[in-house]
């Protein structure tokens, strides 16, 4: 059997954007860049196409996907009603890494919401994503929406480059190459579907930033909000490496590194917190960025690199419990939870 070279990545020029939009129009899957992570996209109003996302990822169909729209699109097309709070947040943060959960319009298929009566909407700021969405609008009379969860197998580390997507899916899915994602972690998800703002997933935008626009602090996730809609990235365990990963304090990292001195382990920590532990002979030390934004941008690429490093375990420093670090602690905590027990995982 002759092995064929992988197809080239679609380039972010006019021809590549046009081809990418045509792929979506034909009901096919397309991986595309955003400022957060790369998405696995399909026409959000094509039930069969969206089901192909679930099949490709191995993702349960009860888990909703986020619909991405262009800056020129009317979000009102997708929802039963666009409340005043949503308009304020759209004016303040779109295009950008904010997903709003709103009541779904009756004509929008419930496959994008996992059977719920809500829908997640986002307008990405990545220029290549915007060009793709505008081109797809041309096929849908200005109402093109692309369903796009992260372009990785269910439960794995999200991709932030086109090559990461290729590593996940091989040659099976065309990939529009937009370079490295600048934010590096998934969007903040805010629920507005129940008459009050509630944070479902932390992200680049903090609750304090949202509160400054809304005039009130969103409810924060504490495990007690049983009426909250299901949303991407909110299961207890996901974003998982294949190599066992633990999230620990600096002191506990030191104790575990000594305990497992016969193993080849990686430690990811801020140099200011870890001290001489980094110099142990069995340790592959990675100096984590001291700045939260830089840490977030590097996180998934680093986890993927360590996963290829023939390591027996990865130990990561638990970061400060402050708003600036909340989203990163959230992702790392869920990645570590995958190795705590037999919990289900999500993307």
From TrEMBL:
Keywords: ATP-binding, Cytoplasm, Nucleotide-binding, Nucleotidyltransferase, Transferase, tRNA processing. It is found in: Cytoplasm. It holds the Pfam family Sua5_yciO_yrdC. L-threonine binds at residues 36, 68, 122, 187. GO terms for cellular component: cytoplasm. The keyword Nucleus does not apply. It comes from the Bacteria. It catalyses: L-threonine + hydrogencarbonate + ATP = L-threonylcarbamoyladenylate + diphosphate + H2O. ATP binds at residues 59, 150, 158, 201, 239. It is an enzyme of class 2 (transferase). This is Threonylcarbamoyl-AMP synthase. It comes from Pararobbsia alpina. The lineage of its organism: Bacteria, Pseudomonadati, Pseudomonadota, Betaproteobacteria, Burkholderiales.
């Amino acid at each position: 059997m002759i092995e064929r070279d992988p197809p080239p990545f679609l380039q972010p020029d006019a021809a590549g954007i046009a081809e990418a939009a045509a792929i979506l129009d034909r009901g096919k899957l397309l991986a595309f860049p955003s400022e957060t992570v790369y998405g696995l996209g399909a026409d959000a109003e094509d039930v069969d196409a969206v089901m192909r996302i679930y099949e490709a990822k191995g993702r349960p169909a009860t888990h909703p996907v986020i619909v991405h729209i262009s800056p020129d699109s009317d979000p009102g097309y997708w929802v039963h009603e666009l409340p005043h709070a949503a308009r304020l947040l759209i004016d303040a943060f779109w295009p950008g890494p904010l997903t709003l959960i709103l009541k779904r319009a009756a004509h929008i298929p419930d496959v994008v919401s996992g059977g719920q009566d809500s829908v997640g909407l986002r307008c990405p700021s990545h220029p290549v994503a915007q060009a793709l969405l505008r081109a797809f609008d041309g096929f849908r009379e200005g109402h093109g929406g692309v369903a796009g969860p992260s372009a990785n197998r269910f439960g794995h580390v999200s991709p932030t480059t086109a090559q990461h997507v290729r590593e996940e899916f091989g040659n099976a899915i065309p990939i529009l190459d937009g370079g490295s994602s600048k934010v590096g972690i998934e969007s903040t998800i805010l629920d507005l579907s129940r008459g009050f703002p509630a944070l479902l997933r932390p992200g680049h935008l903090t609750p304090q930033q949202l509160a400054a626009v809304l005039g009130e602090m969103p409810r924060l996730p504490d495990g007690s909000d049983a009426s909250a809609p299901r949303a991407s990235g909110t299961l207890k365990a996901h974003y998982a490496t294949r190599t066992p990963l633990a999230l620990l304090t600096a002191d506990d990292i030191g104790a575990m590194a000594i305990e497992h001195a016969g193993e080849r382990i990686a430690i990811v920590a801020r140099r200011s917190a870890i001290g001489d532990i980094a110099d142990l002979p069995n340790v592959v030390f990675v100096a984590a960025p001291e700045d939260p934004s830089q840490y977030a941008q590097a996180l998934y690429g680093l986890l993927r690199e360590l996963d290829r490093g023939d390591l027996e375990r990865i130990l990561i420093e638990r970061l400060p419990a402050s708003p600036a670090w909340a989203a990163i602690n959230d992702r790392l905590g869920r990645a570590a939870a995958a190795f705590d027990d037999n919990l289900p995982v999500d993307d």
